[in-house]
Please model this.
Amino acid sequence: MKRTALVLAALLGAAAFAPAFASTNDPTSPFYLLPTQSNGTTLHAVQAGDTTERK
Amino acid sequence: MEHVSWLWIPVTLWAALAQTLRNTAQRHLTGELGTLGATLVRFLYGLPFAVAWLAAVEAWRGEPLPLPPTGFYAWVTLGAVSQIAATAFLLRVMQERNFALGVAYSKTELIQIAVFGLLVLGDRVSAATAFAVACGTLGVLLLSPADKRRPLRALVTGWAARPALVGLASGTSFALSVIGYRAAALSLEGSSFLVAAAVTLAIAQLIQTLLLGGWLAWRNPAVVRATLRLWRPSLFAGFMGAAASAGWFTAFAIEPAAHVRTLGLVELLFAYVVSRRIFREQLSALELSGIALLTVGLVVVTLGR
Model:
């Protein structure tokens, strides 16, 4: 039971984090994500090529 | 080109699911170790997994480890200490005769997160977010009412009672811990959100292990010894705890905490499924209303921000 839960959890975790691991600082990538902001404002994902922070 | 503003959603859903599993694992340990002992298990046995997660993220991203500024340590300490304080307040509430009132007041955590997020971090609260937070809070209050016959009146009339104030303090501490963790991750400028979240998690777990472990070793060393003896079941609880925290911390590094924690209320629905209550028993009108409001909150915060 515990082993099944662990395997299932690992698979679901991998699926949940896959897009996060695919994110990149390359603005041309579909998974472009702005790096952490220094001024404490929200970190936002943006469209490729769009460097405007969304609120 | 598709943007990835939804990225926090699967991570938050994962965190809520992992937390449900962790709570199930922890429930067995609470009987043997007490609440504080079981909480120590979460930090102590979660720490190696948190460090392993940081190493994995580091290896994947290939970025250098950030050199945290002083502010980072202040925020992460606030988060770590507040989380322990919140648990202690909740334990204190449980000792009160009218503990249901205190528990209900601790559920104002979500509203407090929205307020502190706005005041401390400037995380704006849109009308949709405010509505979702209100629905979520009301839903939670109906699922664990202070008084089953008059759930809202009991809250209004009992706000000055001692359990209510201690419960409120617990909610405030939980809210401060979340804001502290998000602020700590955001202070690691130049790092990707995955690395920032993983560093914050590892340091927070370390601080909590030292503080709670040290305090228990001083006041109740038998609990620490029992924690070490029960290493096998503790390892699972520690792993699930670290897995859940990895999700929460990552989501906090991307999205305002009020959004994350509102969607995180899905944990209550998972808990219903895990306990099989939803299949075994007929739910009361109060519970059904709570679940309905909760669902509205979850949908609005996901789609209507």
Q: What stands out?
A: Residues 23-55 of chain A form one domain. Chain A touches chain B through 35 residues (CB under 8 Å). The longest helix of chain A spans residues 2-22. Chain A has one helix and no strands.
